[in-house]
Amino acid sequence: MISLAHAQTAGAADPTGGFMQLLPMILMFVVLWFLMIRPQMKKAKEHKALLAALQKGDEVVTGGGLVGKVTKVDDSYVKVEIAEGTEVVVQKPAVAIVLPKGTLKSL
Q1: Residue 98 · residue 51 · CB < 8 Å
Q2: pTM for this one?
């Protein structure tokens, strides 16, 4: 009345060791690196170099949109003259763009 249970043979072992299951995740990380992380790191490096090269007399645009001429550069802050006799103090990272010389005269 009780039938014999026959053991089923084990399937063949995966010769790649499961690497093929991880391959899509690895490919997604590589694509993410080249499309998002690497360009962001490159842009941050360029901005850091821009801030290091900042000097008196440069014409800049701040992150808030103020346009002016740098009158003093400290370690963390920059004084920017936005109008004759009007200076504002901004943090160095707030400087977004250094304009070519003479741009303020054309505005």
Answers
A1: no
A2: 0.71
